[in-house]
Amino acid sequence: MKTFFTKHVGTSAIGVRYLSTLPTIKIECIKLNTITKHANTIKKNLDQHGFVIFDGLWCEKTQLLDIAPYFGLIQGNKNTDKNGITVVSSRTDGFDSTIPGVYSNMNFSPHTDGAYLDGLREENGIIKKVISPKLTLLKCLQSSDSGGETMLIDGKKSLLKAINEYPDIVPALFRHDSIYLSYEDILTMNQALFRMKPNGKLRLHYSYDNGFIIANWAKKAIDLFNKKCLDITYSFKLKKGQILVVDNHRMLHARTAFKGQRILQRIWIQDDFVNEALFERAMPKNRTYFSHRDKQRNALSAYRRYGALSSHKKPYPLDLDSGIYLSDHEKKELTNILFHNQKLDSIINLTHI
Questions:
Q1: Nearest C-alpha neighbor of 152 from the set 325, 22, 320, 327
Q2: pLDDT tens, 272-318?
Q3: Mean pLDDT value across residues 229-250
Q4: Helices H, strands E: what count in the chain?
Q5: 244, 238, 221, 255: which is closest to 110 by C-alpha?
Q6: Contacts of 324 (CB under 8 A, 6+ apart)
Q7: Which of 115, 130, 209, 227 has minimal Cβ neighbours within 10 Å of its Cβ?
Q8: Closest Cα to residue 269, out of 55, 42, 104, 101?
Q9: Are the CB atoms for 242 and 22 separated by under 8 Å?
Q10: What is the chain's percent helix, strand, coil content, to nearest 5?
Q11: Sign of the alpha-carbon dihedral angle for 295, 297, 301, 302
């Protein structure tokens, strides 16, 4: 296996051409243990760029389901099969309000997967946290005839641009009553675009669409962030057999409109910390509830499909953190804007997952 960087000229959604470098790992040998042997290279690319692409004969022959356990526990959702795989393909030509945009051939705006997820689910009597996946894995089974470029936006660069050029909007990005997110039967309340994770990094969740509900007082700031700070970092077209691994807590991804068939497989990887965030009901098991116990359980049913689909004593051999890392200097700049020299961690620790 060798690591190299390929030069690529991309075209953004507004037609601007620019040069971009793609962190690509070329693998010719069809052996799954290649992943663990080159864990440092994978981790370095994810830390530096927020994503990595696997290419070569190994990717052509290997199933996405074989690769996923190396990165973590597979997280289910409503669109997956029993193994956690979602097939992303166009089911309609043009706009259809009954079909999510990801299943059309139209432009799909920048977002993080599962941005609407922030709740609880019950599993074997244990109540666990549900949040967006830490990683998104995409394998291209068929590339479109034209269009269908993948666009990646680095959330860290977007945040730093806001801090340096538009500091007045930054507090609205961290207030946890600025946005609400909805998807089908799920409504997530009192959210912020950026939240602190237990690992000390920031988690971005973003989906600027009809399910993205903004408080009136924050709308001007968030609209400006969407318009001025989301610069496309990378633009490329996945080739058949290539596998894209994206840090979903740092990077936004989007897609341009396309013609012809474009078929991808997708797997979500669960964040490690949800297994440490456990909850229990206040009332003892044998005490009477004020309402029916079954109805109490129904309140958690919306998130039932979003838990891990498999469990292992040692979930994965790769030690990968997700999210936006800020240097001490960058934290100080952010702290000065938000809280007038108060400690950042002590103020926003309530936004932990």
A1: 22
A2: 888 777 787 776 566 655 555 556 666 777 788 888 886 554 556 78
A3: 93
A4: 10, 22
A5: 255
A6: 155, 156, 159, 194, 201, 202, 203, 204, 249, 250
A7: 227
A8: 42
A9: no
A10: 30, 30, 40
A11: positive
Q: How long a stretch of residues is the chain?
A: 353
List all residues 6 or more positions away from 168 whose beta carbon is below 8 Å from its beta carbon.
Answer: 221
Q: Which of 347, 317, 306, 7 lies closest to 176, judged by CA? A: 347
Cβ contacts of 32 within 8 Å, gap of 6 or more: 62, 66, 67, 70
Residue 134 is encoded by which pair of tokens?
């830490």
pTM of the model: 0.86
Alpha carbons 344 and 156: distance in angstroms, whole number: 17
Return the structure tokens found at 231.
């610069």
Domains and CATH numbers, the chain: 2-348 (3.60.130.10)
A 10 A CB-CB count for 247 gives 27
pLDDT given at position 353:
41
Q: Is the dihedral of CA 290, 295, 296, 297 positive or negative?
A: positive
- Where in 12-85 does DSSP place strands (E)? 17-26, 51-55, 74-75
Q: Buried (b) or exposed (e) across 262-276, using 16+ Cβ within 10 A? A: bebbbbbbbbbbbee
